Amino acid sequence: MSRVFGGCRTLAAAAARAAVAARAGTKASAAVSAAVSSPSSTAAKPKHSGILKPIPVSLAMRKFLGVPEISRTQAVKKIWEYIKGHQLQNPANKKEIRCDEKLKTLFEDRDKIGMLEIAKLISPHFPKSK
């Protein structure tokens, strides 16, 4: 069990030392707290790739989302926001989504879709890059 919590204890001890040093107001405390508080602040921002990479979308998706390019994950999030905002989930079966006219333009004019089908049905709206 000690191996599991060992990393947490190390991080907690470093944070505690940084807090004590910050209260003391020394120059070293600023360096320690900066190093401990945010390791990502010193590192370069990671480049998005795969499904996180923003890519151009089809005209129908562009009209729906209002942006010329977006990542697949962000597109699914925006579609879910629309579905929840317009209460398009079937109340009896939450896995089923009732499509309105705006969603039908994205989902091949289907009246109902399953929630797990969304990722598959938006694939044609993200053209393959050559």
TrEMBL record:
DM2 domain sequence ranges: 50-128
Domain of life: Eukaryota
InterPro entries, sorted: SWIB_domain (IPR019835), SWIB_MDM2_dom_sf (IPR036885), SWIB_MDM2_domain (IPR003121)
Record-linked CDD domains: SWIB-MDM2_like
Entry protein name: SWIB
Taxonomic source organism: Musa troglodytarum (fe'i banana)
